[in-house]
Structures are given as structure tokens and as C-alpha cells.
Amino acid sequence: MKATRAPSHEDRRVWLVIGGIALISLLLIPLSQALFGLRFTYTVRVVALGGAILGFISGALGCFAVLRGESLLGDALSHAALPGVAIAFLLAGRELSALLIGAGIASWLSLRFVAALLATTRIKRDTALGIVLASFFAAGIALLAYIQSIPDASQAGLDHFIFGQAAAIIESDVRLASGAGLVVLCMLALFWKEFKLVTFDAEFAGANGFRTGLINTLLSTLIVVTIVLGLQLAGVILMVGMLIAPGIAARQWTNKLEQMVILAAVFGAFTGGAGAVISALDSDIPTGPMIIVVAFILVLLSLALAPGRGILWRQLRMRANRRVFAALNTRRDLYRYALAHGAADSPVPDDFIRGVGDRSAELGLRQLQAESQATLGEAGWQLSESGIELARRDRRNQRLWALYRRYAHELSLPSVTEDREAEIASLLPADAVAKLEAKLAERADA
Amino acid sequence: MDNRNILALSVDDLTVAYDEKPAIWDIDLDVPEGALMAIVGPNGAGKSSLIKAVLNLIPRAAGTVSFYGEPYEAARSLVGYVPQRGSVDWDFPTSVLDVVTMGLYGKLGWFRRPGKAERALALGALEQVGLIDFADRQISQLSGGQQQRAFLARALVQDAQIYFMDEPFAAVDAVTENAIVSILRQLNQRGKTVLVVHHDLQTVAEYFNWVTLLNVEIIASGPTAETFTLENLRKTYGGRVSSLHGGQLLAAGAP
């Protein structure tokens, strides 16, 4: 019953969404200027650009976290970065590249720590993640409290790493993020085939000679770098949202990995840029929560509306199916009654057919009427010529299926999965159908 | 079966242990080239572990394995693999054709992307397993049997000498079962060696010319006619095997 999907049509739709979101992202600053009277300052431009670039990178890489079922790992890795930030500050002072390197080291260590816990103890995965997340984050908070007790002005703003603060982003930060992000994206492109294979079927990859351990570590490391870059914007607590939300939304719109990654990157750029601009309107609004609110609006819209997978879409399809089956059943009832009362076009009393089919009869009758398979006259419902033809063919199909179940072995017919709503001739070869038809004729004679 | 003297696979003293308990113990196994071999045994007998340990997918506690006399690292291109269908996420965003093309990734090596030639090979394999009309479908739209055939097509494009298949017949429809059997026979006729983890004792004699009975240790291994006996089955399944009329065999607990 499933129709083959025209891939080009679906592809066009995905590219349309990608283009649309990209366009909106580009128009973000002029739009917010027009709508909210936001002043198109240099600072806002830098913040929006930084947000969009970081969102782009985390959207792309986050797809792999989503597909590997590692969202919670992403959460643990970002929380674990906090003590790294604090220690780097104590050692090197408030220098962003140093802070990010510290964050990266801590986050990467937590990754190895989770792996070591899983390899050497019987602790389950979610528990190991919980331990690492809580302990690293607690250490980070404690270190921040200690730093704040030091009488030194330069510690100001370190707690922005908890919830993120876009307003603190300056041009050199954007340049750093773009450079590192470009490297991450190049690696993604370079190892595309390997990442895809290991994510889908690591066992098969291993049996094909790929060093899956190495590929996994590389992919995880890229995710760590992505998380670390995004920390200043989204903060350690909510970074996971910026990582996974674009991927979740993108998955709803496409069934192709490359499209999913590009779409997620564009979604990420939009949410990162929009969140940063909104929080720049008022420096009291932390950026992380704003980005995540925007991102999850996109997720909700995608879950609800995306064709094929969306909730709305599935509801519509379910209703359409219900109509089709109601019509089929009602037509069978009409036909059976009519034949029992003379001819196929004998009228069937309205309250009889409604009494038989209950509420589905109502639906079925309406559908049959809409398709001119049946009409309501003085004496009741009457099947039209096309309705009779369809009912006759359906009955014959049902009989052939019944014979198939009974005689398939005896007549040595090929075995297929019975699908009584499908034409038997579409599932069985012609000679097999011919045998069944001969059987049907034979039984009609007897 | 002309080349019985050439060993496609040779396993010596192979042991695999999860925690303290061995999954497979001291396995010695020689498989001649051209064998179409079923690996049978009760649940927990270590059938999948044996395959995975041979392919270096899980760590070995002891033992050596060679393919045509070479260690795995040197013989990798000779080996094809069909994992259990349930081992992957079938909602992964990719098409049937794409999955089959993955069978060529190993030959492509690092960095290189599949192109037209790879696409043609993959389409050819899909034709062989009767899934050509499904090439552009998303993989979640396949039935269980069709998924199994897609995995089989992916192994076919590997163009290997020795194939390992982990329960390809598990919960498949009759069309798929027939398709798999005919492909096993074709592979066999082309002189390939095939090892299949199998559950259905009734079809062993019909489908396979070689059989290994496994229950942590190897109970027996050899040509089906000599090896697949009631006595050996009793040793493997611990007396839970009864003989049915017509010489058919039934193991209690086997699906």
C-alpha cells in the first residue's frame, strides 16, 4: 500500500527549509532592528555573528550525539568543563584561549573517566555519567567560589560560563571560534564516511578493518571541542541543548544524514544568532536560556509539523486510513446485504447499515458517497456501478486469499506474507494466481 | 568441495571470557574452503561470541585465528560479515542503497568517497536479493526480512572469500528465507566459504553441507552427514533433543 516516495520532491522540500532558515538568519539583524527597534550596533553584530557561528558548528556535530544516543554524554562533558575553566584561570589568568583549553582538557578527561568507569567497574552507563557530571561540576562551582574570594578584579565574569553570556563576546572571540570551528567542520567532512559507518554499525566497521576505537575517540574529541567553543555563549548547564536540539529538529525533516547535518547546522546558526540577539537586548537575560528557548520552539514545531514524521502529519494519515477502512467495510456490508436481497444494486435500508457498522458506518457511507460508489435514495443505500465493480473485485480477492491460505502448500505456491487488503496478483506471480483461480472455478462448480 | 585440503579458516585454542565465566572455551576449528557451515548450539553457547572473536570484534583471552593461513590483519579483504539485524538502529537517516554501499567502505579505505562504480555494484547486489525497487527507501520502511536482505546485499558487495553471518534466518519471512538460501548456494557454488549461526535444527541438513555443534566448547565439527547426528545433538543440547518422525530433529527451547 505504500507508495514509493519521489526522492526529488522530498529533497526539494528539505533544501527549501534549509534555504528559508538560512535567509531568516541572514535577515536577523535588519528584522530585529525593524521589529524591536534594536540598534544595529557593532556589539550586537559581533554577538549575533558569534552566536550564529557557534550554533552552526554545534548543530552539525550535535547530530552525531543525537544519532549515537549520547545526548546525556554531551551534558556530562559540558558540565565537566567548569573546573577546567577555573583551574586555567588560576594558572593563566583571564585569557579566553587559556580558559577554553582548560575547559577542553577537563571535558576530555571526564570522557576518559566515563570510559574507564565502564571498563573497570560494573557501574551502568547512566550512573557513570551522573557521577562524572555531578563531581566535576561540583568541583567547578567550589573552585569558582574560591576564586571569587580572591581580592582581584580580573575574576569578574567567570561565572558567565555557568549560564553563558553573549554580551561578553568580543571580536577576537568570534575569530577564535571561527578558526577552531572551521577545523572541526573540515575534520567532519574528511572523516564523513568513517563517522557515518561507525555511528550506524560499529561492528561492521570493525569487521571491515576500520579502527573503530580511534574513529570514536576522534568523533568524541570533535564533540568536546564543539562544546568547549559554545560554553561562553550557552554556558555549561545548557550547552547540551544547543548541541542536540538542532539535530532533533532536523531529523524530523529528512531521512538523509547529509541533509540532516546541514539542516541542523542552519537551525543551530538561527537559534544561536537569535538567542544571542535577544539576550543582547537586555544584559540581564543570560544567553544560554534564550538560545535553548528558541531551539526548543524549533524542536516543537518540527515534531508537530514536519511532513512524514510530524505528529500532525501522522494524525492526518491515520484519519485518512480510518476513512479508507470504514469505506471498505461499509461497501462489503452493503454488497452482502444487497446480494442477499436480490441483486447487487438492491437498496439497503439506511438504519440497517448504520446499525451494522455503528459510527464507522457513518464515516464509510460519507466516503462512499463522496467517491460516488453509493447513493442514498428513497428505499435506502444503493451501490453504483463503480461501487459494485469494486465490491466484486474485493470479494474475489478475499476468496483467492482464503484459498491461498488453504491450498498454498498443496499447490506448491511460493510463500508470501498474507496481506488481504492488497491485490493478490500484486504479490503472487501470474501462474500462481492462475492456479488459485482454477481452484476457485472448481469449487464454484462443485 | 574440491578443495578440502585448503583451510579457509583455522582457529586454535580460542577462548573468550566475559568477567570470570568463559563464553567460549578452548576452541579448535578447521573449516575447509567451500564449506557451507551451520554453527548450532543452545542459547548462551557462544555462537555469536565465536564469530566476533574470530573477527577481532571482541577481545580474545587466548588463541590464534588464521584465514587462508594469514592473520586477520592481512586477510581482512577476504572476510565478509553479516551482523545480527537487531544490532543497529534502523531509524538511522539513510537509504537502503547507502547501507549496501557501506559494504565497499573497507575497500575504499580512509577518506575516499564512494562514486559511480560503487553505486553500480551496490545496485547489482540489491538486484540479487530482490530489493532493487527499495534502493531509495529509508531503511526504517523495510520489513524485518527486507532488512536482513539489505544486510546480505551489503555483505555481497564485499566480494569476500569467507563469509560470517550471525543468525540471518532469525524471524524472517518465507520469501527472505528462500532468498537467503539461494544466495548461500550461489556463494557455495562460487567456491566461497560461509559460516552461519543457525537456530533451526530442522533445516540444517537441507541447507548446509558442514556443521559445527557448539556449547561453550566444540562438541563436533565436520560434514553434515557424519556430524549432525542425534548423539552429537544430545551432547550439545544436553538431552533436550528428541527425534521426530521422518528423521526430523527438534531441540527443546529452540525457536
Description:
The complex is a heterodimer of chains A (446) and B (255). Chain A has three domains: 11-307, ABC transporter involved in vitamin B12 uptake, BtuC; 314-383, no CATH class; 398-445, no CATH class. In chain A, 77% of the residues lie in helices and 1% in strands. Chain A is built from 19 helices and two strands. In chain A, helix 15 (311-340) crosses helix 17 and helix 17 (385-407) crosses helix 19. Chain A is elongated. Residues 1-6 of chain A have low confidence and may be disordered. Chain B is globular. With 255 residues, chain B is an alpha/beta fold. Chain B is built from ten helices and eleven strands. The chains are: A mainly alpha (446), B alpha/beta (255).
* Share of helical residues of chain A: over 70%
What is the number of E strands of chain B? 11
Q: If you average the pLDDT of chain B, what whole number results? A: 87
How large is the share of residues in beta strands of chain A?
under 5%
Largest interface: A-B, 35 and 41 residues
Mean pLDDT across the residues of chain A is 86
Q: What is the succession of H and E elements of chain B?
A: EEEHEHEHHHHEHEHEEHHEE
Low-confidence stretches of chain A: 1-6
